[in-house]
Design brief:
This protein is mainly alpha-helical and 125 residues long. It is 87% helix and 0% strand.
Length: 125
Amino acid sequence: MELQTNSSGKWIIISAVMGFLGVALGAFGAHSLKPYIDPDKLDVYKTGTHYQMIHAVVMLAIAFLGDKVYLKAEKFFFAGIILFSFSLYVYSITSVPAFAMVTPVGGVLFLIGWAVLIYGAVRKT
């Protein structure tokens, strides 16, 4: 098996890993965490998986397009998943407010990623 080394191939792999982790973490939350954390914290956790899955799918679609203009958004979406979704996972399990304070930074990175897509599409038309 040959590992793709081009930029698009790298992002296909990263997107697939993010999708895999989104499903695995969602199942973990639904089945393993449910008895241990309160419903409000479980909703926070679900928000993390929801945003992770949406952006993993978008990242995968962009990677398959392979257009350099759109590939720039991948970095923002990936960083957004790490900061937004993962901070929500950790916060919902630990209740440490400092983790929730990171979440808006991830949200801003998601918005920048979407803005990069818009800008790229406008430039191409």
